[in-house]
Amino acid sequence: MYIPRSSRWTKNKTKDRNTGIKIFFINIFSFNMYLYVV
């Protein structure tokens, strides 16, 4: 089955963006926990 390069690229960009958002929220959450503990 042939997958066009453009659609595969778009799918990878979306996955990267979701991973970035997930890391962003984890950073904010851990920073808030740090402030709460201190």
Q: How would you describe this structure to a colleague?
A:
The protein is mainly α and 38 residues long. The protein is 87% helix and 0% strand. It has one helix and no strands. It has one helix spanning 5-37. The longest helix has 33 residues, at 5-37. The protein starts with a helix and ends with a helix. The model has no long low-confidence stretch (mean pLDDT 77).
Number of strands: 0
Number of helices: 1
Q: What proportion of the residues is helical, as a percent range?
A: over 70%
**What is the string of helix and strand elements?**
H
Strand content: under 5%
Oligomer: single chain
How can the largest sheet be summarized?
none
Q: What does the average pLDDT come to?
A: 77
Which stretches are poorly predicted, pLDDT < 50 over at least 5 residues? none
Structural class: mainly alpha
Instruction: Please tell me how large the radius of gyration is.
Output: 17 Å
Morphology call: rod-shaped
Keywords: Membrane, Transmembrane, Transmembrane helix
SSE order and pairing:
Blueprint: H1 5-37
